[in-house]
Amino acid sequence: MLIMGAGGHALEILELTAQNGQLEGLCFFDNTRSAPSWVYDRFPVLYQEEQLRAHFAQAPDFVLGVGSPKVRRILAQIGRAAGGQLQSIQAQDVYIGQFDNQLSQGLNLMQGVWISNSVSIEEGALINAGAQLHHEVKVGAYTEISPKALLLGAVQIGQNCRIGAQATILPGIKIADEVVVGAGAVVHRDLPKGVTAVGVPAKIIKGAAVF
Known about the structure:
The protein is of the alpha/beta class. The protein has helices spanning 8-19, 49-58, 69-81; strands at residues 2-4, 27-29, 38-39, 43-46, 61-64, 85-86, 89-90, 95-96, 102-103, 108-109, 114-115, 120-121, 126-127, 132-133, 138-139, 144-145, 150-151, 156-157, 162-163, 168-169, 174-175, 180-181, 186-187, 196-198, 203-205.
């Protein structure tokens, strides 16, 4: 197994690999200047795409280990271009309903996540610790749902969004692509593409979202 990224979120993904018995041969990939050479003096960090291709020739599976939707998408593209196969990873205590769920590849489902029925999660999404996705929720590709966020029935979240910690999205709300919702916000109306919304109730801040 290879974890794409070697920073903060990657350390949480490392814990999932340990719990799931996937530490044998584990390494990281991080092509940023600040990347370490080793993680915990045990797991090597690759930084060149040539190294990545050589690794994938022997063990092609990789998971995403960053939070940023934009960076997650880029790393997925790099991994596939080097011959890797994007996989999902989930904590052992994740609850997933038994009926009509559609969960794509490349997901991070962290500790304590609760997923109801008729839920759709597109490729590369991060559902962080303690988040709840109720019936008929849809989450777009590479979107980040932060810890303890609450997505109530039939909520639709677009691609490349960032939903802050403990935010609440009320039933039936539609959030377009590339939207940022602040921590603790309560979203009671639809949000258009590229905005940032904060507060209770959530109010739009003018300007494009940073994702």
